[in-house]
Amino acid sequence: MEVRATAEGTAAYRDRFSFSKEHFHQQQNLWLSSIGLGTYLGQPNEITDITYQMAINKAVELGCNIFDTAINYRSQRSERVIGNTLQQLFQQGKLQREQVVIATKGGFIPFDPKSAPDPHSYRKKEFIDTGIITDSDIIADCHCMTPHYIENQLNKSLQNLGLKTIDIYYLHNPETQLEEISLEEFYKRIREVFRLLEKKVDEGKISFYGTATWYGYRRPSNSKDFLDLTTLVKIAEEIAGKNHHFRFIQLPYNLAMPEAFTIANQTVGGQKLCVLDAAKEYGITIIASASILQSRLAHNLPKDVQAHFPGLQTDAQRSIQFVRSTPGVTTALVGMSQKAHSEENLRVANIAPLKPDSFLQLFEKT
Ligand SMILES: NC(=O)c1ccc[n+]([C@@H]2O[C@H](COP(=O)([O-])OP(=O)(O)OC[C@H]3O[C@@H](n4cnc5c(N)ncnc54)[C@H](OP(=O)(O)O)[C@@H]3O)[C@@H](O)[C@H]2O)c1
Hints:
The chain has helices at residues 7-14, 46-62, 77-91, 119-128, 147-161, 183-202, 229-240, 259-262, 275-281, 303-306, 315-324, 339-346, 356-365, and strands at residues 24-27, 30-33, 35-38, 66-68, 101-106, 166-172, 206-212, 246-252, 266-268, 271-273, 285-289, 329-335. By secondary structure, it is an alpha/beta fold. The strands form 3 sheets. It has an 8-stranded parallel beta barrel, surrounded by 5 helices. The chain has a two-stranded antiparallel sheet with strand order 1-2. α2 (46-62) crosses α3, α2 (46-62) packs parallel to α12 (339-346) and α6 crosses α7 (229-240). NADP nicotinamide-adenine-dinucleotide phosphate (NAP) binds at residues 38-42, 68, 105, 172-173, 212-214, 250, 252, 289-295, 298, 316, 333-338, 341, 344-345.
């Protein structure tokens, strides 16, 4: 039995549907749906777990095979609800492990009310008292990126998700570190943790790794928290050669935050490129987050923007269509803890993405 997403498994999932071919993209030898389900938002309580479970089941039924979480989301409940829901689907024979891509992240210090009464006591009990981290490893009172800590977090995520292998393991907002350390120290830490992650690939605990970010790839290149893709790729190559596994980056991208497409802040071979084009040059897959700006783009889009998305009924659908029509974006992640939102959003899978000309015209207007 497979323990990870595979080329054959994801192709078999794709073949269940009669969507336009453009709904699934082949990247890293996997077929990924152009809409993925995210699990950041929502209360850390039982009722939200139940609604997430229904939303995930519906999304699997309607053509979504990429699920995104992080250990700190909803005090680890988001990882557990993805794990439990998918395990049930595997047991019921409705989905196979190899058909679905599961991504999580480590870096932010999480909490678990089952283990300690408050986040501070949890941190002390789980990480400081055990020697996994020291106070000086913590940045901005919330973030840590040492290999020892990331190894601990990866193991915990595997346990929360009930998996042998995580398909994509992201360092979560690594640019947070740049608030307090020098660029030189930052890339030294990246090197150490990329070395660990390559080892975890060899051990079969992850298939790929990457960086999930908020500011890093959207900033001008002279900003303090800018992430330089060329340097990151060079580090991965120095550790593992051309066949390294630093293959995914995640960044916010939507109608109101188009920087990944509009700002040429990366330099590849002496040429200034936007991060979408730079990633393509390096064979790295782009996953967009916050596709509907945490629901603010689900209502009140201007009429001329609405008119640009034929065949779609709601502003959430139009906003998702914008993201999945962007050249270089593989998957638009949308947070969905409501079954009705999975139904509404996955309807977009039935409509072909905008053609490049039409997409660019829209840009000229905004
Ligand atoms: N730095 C990072 O690594 C980072 C940052 C942000 C996001 N992410 C990832 O990307 C995912 C997506 O981003 P996000 O969740 O922050 O924001 P988002 O996808 O832009 O928005 C999610 C919000 O929109 C609501 N929604 C979904 N479909 C809707 C619809 N059809 N009509 C009205 N409202 C709708 C959701 O409600 P319900 O929950 O009620 O369905 C939720 O409140 C996250 O869940 C997370 O997995 C990663």
